[in-house]
């Protein structure tokens, strides 16, 4: 997918998920979550090429401009959307799947240790994370899971679950739990 198509896809994802979004131009110019993602793509490309200092400098500039910190080593999927992104932190070894949505104040953080391997969480496709939630350590949050606001997740979570509390506990989604309005429609035209 070329860069222009990717930008269009990002804008469409934002418009689909945010009922306050009026036009594509407004989203492109005024949504810091998108600006942070676009800056991350540039930083990640530099990181993968071994230009680590330049990658970190770009990510810190994006953080200063958007209030969203995404480490250049993090792997981010398609149609990722950060709504009201201030205070979002995504660590170096975090992995984020496609069609994931984060609200403000979310942390995808590592546990404190001297370990240099995988230290941050993996969010599978279709995960929605509520405002202020903390997902900590090298854990996996399964596909189509919803993490409630201010939950603290420190253990793996199965797919199709709801996580709430401190520490967060998972429960299976019931038939009447409909979070489709929080997620991106699986197929749409760009």
Automatic annotation (TrEMBL):
InterPro entries hit by this protein: Hexapep (IPR001451), LbH_SAT (IPR045304), Ser_AcTrfase_N_sf (IPR042122), Ser_O-AcTrfase (IPR005881), Serine_acetyltransferase (IPR053376), Trimer_LpxA-like_sf (IPR011004)
EC category: transferase
Listed pathway(s): Amino-acid biosynthesis; L-cysteine biosynthesis; L-cysteine from L-serine: step 1/2
GO molecular function: serine O-acetyltransferase activity
CDD domains per the UniProt record, alphabetical: LbH_SAT
Catalytic reaction list: L-serine + acetyl-CoA = O-acetyl-L-serine + CoA
Intracellular or extracellular location(s): Cytoplasm
E.C. number: 2.3.1.30
CC annotations in GO: cytoplasm
One GO BP: cysteine biosynthetic process from serine
Coiled coil region boundaries: none
Family: Belongs to the transferase hexapeptide repeat family.
NCBIfam families: cysE (TIGR01172), EPS_EpsC (NF041874)
PANTHER family, per the entry: SERINE ACETYLTRANSFERASE (PTHR42811)
Protein's name in the database: Serine acetyltransferase
Organism this protein belongs to: Microbacterium tenebrionis
């Amino acid at each position: 997918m070329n860069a222009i198509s990717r930008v269009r896809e990002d804008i469409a994802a934002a418009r689909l998920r945010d009922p306050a979004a009026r036009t594509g131009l407004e989203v492109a110019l005024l949504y810091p979550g998108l600006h942070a993602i676009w800056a991350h793509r540039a930083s990640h490309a530099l990181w993968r090429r071994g230009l680590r200092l330049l990658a970190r400098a770009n990510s810190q500039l994006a953080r200063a401009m958007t209030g969203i910190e995404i480490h250049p080593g993090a792997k981010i999927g398609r149609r990722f959307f950060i709504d009201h992104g201030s205070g979002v932190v995504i660590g170096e070894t975090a992995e984020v799947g496609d069609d994931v949505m984060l609200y403000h104040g979310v942390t995808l953080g590592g546990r404190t240790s001297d370990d240099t391997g995988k230290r941050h969480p993996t969010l599978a496709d279709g995960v929605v994370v509520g405002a202020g939630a903390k997902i900590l350590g090298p854990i996996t949050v399964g596909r189509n899971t919803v993490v409630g606001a201010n939950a603290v997740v420190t253990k793996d979570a199965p797919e199709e679950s709801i996580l709430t509390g401190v520490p967060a506990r998972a429960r299976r989604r019931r038939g009447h739990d409909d979070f489709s309005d929080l997620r991106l429609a699986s197929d749409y035209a760009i």
